[in-house]
């Protein structure tokens, strides 16, 4: 849409607002700022795509009313300064290539096709990208080892992993792996769901260890071959510089755009391949499926730079898992429903007896009863003395001996039951 006027873009802006559920107002200063930013981004996207010389295309997404600085402040969150955290136990010079020297790597790998990648998630405006890169890597290796793809809880990491990581103010994947090792596992997304803000650590959920790892490995900085070897066997968490305008608006193709070297965003490599002569990594992001190519981006690899495109080779790591998960407690059988109480016995309009008893008249006057009593036996036989009752299977009252007999010739029976005063309605 070359030379788009403000009136043309007003329509584009309204459509964009409706598509992404934005409350857009162009009549106040904030609304004017948002509209001006949208126009700038729209024209930048249009110019890039019209040039036709790039291996990737840009497009409008949920971030198209944000400046690069606003975007940087709200939707990143990796903290490389935490690499010197005392909680870390794994050196970055571990031999990742051990056992791979004579392996012929496949030309392409896509762990999505093997069922080892959950659907793209959305970190929102919480700087928790590091938590999503961590859970994604563990979800992958857990599926590869156990055959089960379980979506894991980023919120547990945001709330509970506080020895070194900073919740929505940023963190580091290796710190998170160490936390999970020490905790003995991580809860599920379903049980401890994400809400894009920090809360107090839920100790009950913290002790729900559904998926565990044995440890983790840190790939030496700049070793792209080691990174390739690792991705060939499982998804790998990496750090990138993710604040450029092109990356903010990436839509499809192999991304080769300009990036700085300041790593500030945690993502997950889930495969690699080649397209039109360009080698690429398949990267899962945490900005929902509305960003990029359904939540993913193909990022150029084999650039010839030690750090790789957007410094993707700089800070990579992955979890180690060889066995099953912690045993889960057997679900408790549901408690049996208590039996429904028997209905109360209504003796007359004004008197009733508790359930499980029988109404017996204590003071009859002709066909009427002046005072009722409650015999503590259900379906009982009321005795002629108007003071006692007998069970229905011992129907013969013998007050003199204080017994209830089965028949008049019986000499053994059960004890008479005395009636008590009734409940007044």
Automatic annotation (TrEMBL):
<feature type="domain" description="Granulins">
    <location>
        <begin position="347"/>
        <end position="404"/>
    </location>
</feature>
<dbReference type="GO" id="GO:0004197">
    <property type="term" value="F:cysteine-type endopeptidase activity"/>
</dbReference>
<dbReference type="InterPro" id="IPR039417">
    <property type="entry name" value="Peptidase_C1A_papain-like"/>
</dbReference>
<feature type="domain" description="Peptidase C1A papain C-terminal">
    <location>
        <begin position="105"/>
        <end position="320"/>
    </location>
</feature>
<keyword id="KW-0325">Glycoprotein</keyword>
<dbReference type="InterPro" id="IPR000169">
    <property type="entry name" value="Pept_cys_AS"/>
</dbReference>
<dbReference type="GO" id="GO:0005764">
    <property type="term" value="C:lysosome"/>
</dbReference>
<dbReference type="InterPro" id="IPR038765">
    <property type="entry name" value="Papain-like_cys_pep_sf"/>
</dbReference>
<dbReference type="Pfam" id="PF08246">
    <property type="entry name" value="Inhibitor_I29"/>
</dbReference>
<feature type="region of interest" description="Disordered">
    <location>
        <begin position="321"/>
        <end position="343"/>
    </location>
</feature>
<dbReference type="GO" id="GO:0005615">
    <property type="term" value="C:extracellular space"/>
</dbReference>
<dbReference type="GO" id="GO:0051603">
    <property type="term" value="P:proteolysis involved in protein catabolic process"/>
</dbReference>
<dbReference type="InterPro" id="IPR013128">
    <property type="entry name" value="Peptidase_C1A"/>
</dbReference>
<dbReference type="InterPro" id="IPR000668">
    <property type="entry name" value="Peptidase_C1A_C"/>
</dbReference>
<dbReference type="InterPro" id="IPR013201">
    <property type="entry name" value="Prot_inhib_I29"/>
</dbReference>
<protein>
    <recommendedName>
        <fullName>Granulins domain-containing protein</fullName>
    </recommendedName>
</protein>
<keyword id="KW-0645">Protease</keyword>
<dbReference type="Pfam" id="PF00112">
    <property type="entry name" value="Peptidase_C1"/>
</dbReference>
<feature type="compositionally biased region" description="Pro residues">
    <location>
        <begin position="326"/>
        <end position="342"/>
    </location>
</feature>
<comment type="similarity">
    <text>Belongs to the peptidase C1 family.</text>
</comment>
<dbReference type="InterPro" id="IPR037277">
    <property type="entry name" value="Granulin_sf"/>
</dbReference>
<dbReference type="InterPro" id="IPR000118">
    <property type="entry name" value="Granulin"/>
</dbReference>
<feature type="domain" description="Cathepsin propeptide inhibitor">
    <location>
        <begin position="13"/>
        <end position="71"/>
    </location>
</feature>
<keyword id="KW-0732">Signal</keyword>
<keyword id="KW-1015">Disulfide bond</keyword>
<dbReference type="InterPro" id="IPR025660">
    <property type="entry name" value="Pept_his_AS"/>
</dbReference>
<keyword id="KW-0788">Thiol protease</keyword>
<dbReference type="Pfam" id="PF00396">
    <property type="entry name" value="Granulin"/>
</dbReference>
<dbReference type="InterPro" id="IPR025661">
    <property type="entry name" value="Pept_asp_AS"/>
</dbReference>
<keyword id="KW-0378">Hydrolase</keyword>
